[in-house]
Structure formats: structure tokens, C-alpha cells
Amino acid sequence: MISGCFQNIVLFLLLFSGIRSLDCNHIVKCQQSGTVNIVKLLESMGPKMIPWQCFNKIQDFAFPIGNNTGSIKEDARAAVGLMLEQINRLFWQNFTKAEWNMTVTEHLQISLDQQLVQWEKCSVAETGKKATFKDVRIKLKLRKYFLRLDTFLKDEEYSSCAWEAVRHEIMDLFLKLFTSTLSYNINIKKGEIAIKALKIIL
């Protein structure tokens, strides 16, 4: 599972600064309902708790610690885009062994794709082009994180237990980062961001 309160706070603030800096409030509002829907789909496509026989598959995938360096706004936009892209890709892999509700899983795939498309529209609203990483270390850390998920699934031969571990990992990611960042009032003042973010995470 995602580890460490501190690392969640740091990356949370990074992502939040990117979302709030975008000139696309109507899209952000759509993202709110879309994100809540994705969390509900992740919860309902399989058991609420990881089955006891899968407990030995639970591990720390080491969600990366972000550093507020470089062009934070640009890096934040790029980070959110990359995370949505990788999560979307993840759930198109071989899940034939997963004991999921396939109808709900299909709805999840559609919702993730829509979320990614909406975010890409949002991320280019201000500059007219897709956001890119100024600090490549953030990009590398995120890619390594998703590579760990890919490698875990492959090593476990895409077993039902492996998918349950990954599903709950991604569910935690949405609950701790995306849902929190998208749940604020659109007109929140920048000076309140850090305080409110800390209250949500702690």
C-alpha cells in the first residue's frame, strides 16, 4: 500500500498546485464527479477487503516522494497526466484471472479513459500545449512506481490476488490524492492550500 504520511503530503501539494493553477474550472468540476465515480467503480468491481488468502501478496509499492523543485505548476500538470495515463493503461492488461465484475470493470475502463481525455484538455487550456516535466526526476520516480506495479503483476502471472493488491493500491491512490485535490471549492485562495491539504492528509 501507499506508505508514509510525509510523502503523500509532498506529492499532494505538488499535484494540487497544478490542478488549481489551470484556467479550466468547468473541466475541474467534471473531474470531481468523474473521480468519485472511479473510486466507486474500483470499490464495487471486487471485494471491499483483500481476501485473507491474498494477505501474503500485500506489499509496499513505494509511491514516490515528490520534491517541490523547478517549475512546480508545469511539473504538477505533467504528473497528474502521467498518473492518469498509467492507471488507465494498467487496467487494460491481462485480468482474466481477476475475480471481478466484468461489467463494472468495463465501466471503469471507460471512466478512466474519459478522465484522461478531460485532463488533457484541461492541461493545455492555459499554455495551448501538453504539459511536460521540467524536473525529470519526478517523471522517473512516477514511471518506476508504475513499473513496479507492472513487474509485480507479471511476476505473479496476473493472478487474482495480485490484481486485488494492485486494485487496492490504485484505490488508495485515488482516495488519498485525486479525490482530495479535486474536492476543494474552485475559488480557494492559494494561501489556504497548504493548511487545508495538511488537514486532509493528517
Layout of strands and helices, then pairs:
Blueprint: H1 5-20, H2 25-44, H3 72-90, H4 102-123, H5 136-155, H6 160-181, H7 193-201
Helix pairs in contact: 1-3, 1-6, 1-7, 2-4, 2-6, 3-4, 3-5
Q: Describe it for me?
A:
- The protein is mainly alpha-helical and 202 residues long.
- The chain has a single domain, classed as Growth Hormone, Chain: A.
- The protein contains 7 helices and no strands.
- Mean pLDDT is 74; it is low at 2-10, 66-71 and 183-202.
Number of domains: 1
Structural class: mainly alpha
Separation, N- and C-terminal Cα atoms: 17 Å
- Which overall shape is indicated by the principal axes computed on the Cα atoms? globular
Based on DSSP secondary structure assignment, what is the total number of beta strands? Answer: 0
Unreliable stretches (pLDDT < 50, length at least 5) are 2-10, 66-71, 183-202
Q: Describe the main β-sheet briefly.
A: none
CATH fold-level label: Growth Hormone, Chain: A
Strand content: under 5%
Query: What is the count of DSSP helices, taking H or I runs of 4+ residues?
Result: 7
The CATH C-level name is: Mainly Alpha
